[in-house]
């Protein structure tokens, strides 16, 4: 038996997230079905973590064990012939038996994309509608950057997580957080050791309130220390969120 690591890209628009569910179409469910089909085994696929409905990935990672005689390097070619066009296997690797996509990970990097349509007569291209969150008010990049620095490091992120996490500790370590801009497109880059439920989307929503002038940048520290979800900003939609990379 060998352990195979897959790097996966998908557009999450049509799916009910990563995790397999009986009544809904999910990324994990489709992948397990197709891998089981070609190996003639009952495959269990272990993902690096769950992504919500509508969230995309350029670098999701998963692994599975198999006794199949199919050469491991051929799995991307074979699977991509069977998978829907919005799910692609970018790479397959044979890894040590003790490798686990979730428990071996040391950090993850997410990007969230925001289009400031205020700078373009409130126009949103139909080709971007599933990949960016549109803001129709001017946003201040410098203020958001100053606010974001309060979030870097190890903190209790209760204020930036939604209920339903089912976890014991709310502490996470943000290793880096940066905001870049190209024209009217803003990108929030966040790397952390792990993330709470909807943490990235709530951080972005709160920083946007700073950018729009509704919250002073210095208030972020108080919101963080309050450990109260009700005083942070709203959770922005999933469509602008991309899992970029899982680091090992």
How would you describe the overall organization of this protein?
This protein is α+β, with helices and mostly antiparallel strands and 248 residues long. The protein has two domains: 94 residues, Pseudouridine synthase I, catalytic domain, N-terminal subdomain (Alpha-Beta Plaits, 2-Layer Sandwich); 141 residues, Pseudouridine synthase I, catalytic domain, C-terminal subdomain (Alpha-Beta Plaits), CATH 3.30.70. The chain has five helices and ten strands, in the order βαββαβββαβββααβ. Strands 1, 2, 3, 4, 5, 6, 7, 8, 9 and 10 form a ten-stranded mixed β-sheet that branches. It starts with a strand and ends with a strand. The mean pLDDT is 94.
Quick summary:
This protein is an alpha+beta fold and 248 residues long. Helix content is 20%, strand content 30%. Strands 1, 2, 3, 4, 5, 6, 7, 8, 9 and 10 form a ten-stranded mixed beta sheet that branches.
> What helical percentage do the residues reach?
10-25%
Q: Give the CATH level 1 class of the largest domain.
A: Alpha Beta
Number of helices: 5
Instruction: Tally the structural domains.
Output: 2
- The percent range for strand residues is 25-35%
CATH architecture of the largest domain: 2-Layer Sandwich
């Amino acid at each position: 038996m060998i352990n195979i690591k897959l790097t996966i890209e998908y557009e999450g628009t049509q799916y009910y997230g990563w995790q397999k569910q009986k009544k809904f179409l999910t990324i994990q469910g489709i992948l397990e079905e197709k891998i089981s089909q070609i190996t003639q085994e009952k495959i269990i696929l272990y993902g690096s973590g769950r992504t919500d409905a509508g969230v995309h990935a350029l670098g999701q990672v998963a692994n599975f064990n198999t006794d199949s005689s199919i050469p491991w390097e051929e799995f991307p070619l074979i699977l991509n012939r069977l998978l829907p066009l919005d799910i692609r296997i970018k790479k397959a690797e044979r890894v040590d038996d003790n490798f686990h996509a979730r428990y071996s990970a040391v950090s993850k990097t997410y990007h969230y994309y925001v289009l400031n349509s205020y700078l373009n007569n409130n126009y949103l291209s139909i080709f971007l509608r599933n990949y960016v969150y549109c803001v129709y008010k001017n946003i201040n990049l410098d203020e958001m950057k100053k606010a974001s620095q309060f979030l870097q490091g190890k903190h209790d992120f209760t204020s930036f997580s939604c209920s339903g996490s089912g976890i014991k500790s709310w502490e996470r370590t943000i290793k880096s957080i940066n905001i870049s801009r190209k024209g009217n497109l803003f990108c929030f880059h966040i790397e952390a050791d792990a993330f709470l439920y909807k943490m990235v989307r709530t951080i972005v929503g709160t920083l946007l309130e700073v950018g729009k002038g509704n919250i002073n940048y210095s208030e972020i520290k108080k919101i963080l220390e309050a450990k109260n979800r009700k005083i942070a900003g709203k959770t922005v939609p999933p469509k602008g969120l991309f899992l970029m990379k899982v680091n090992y």
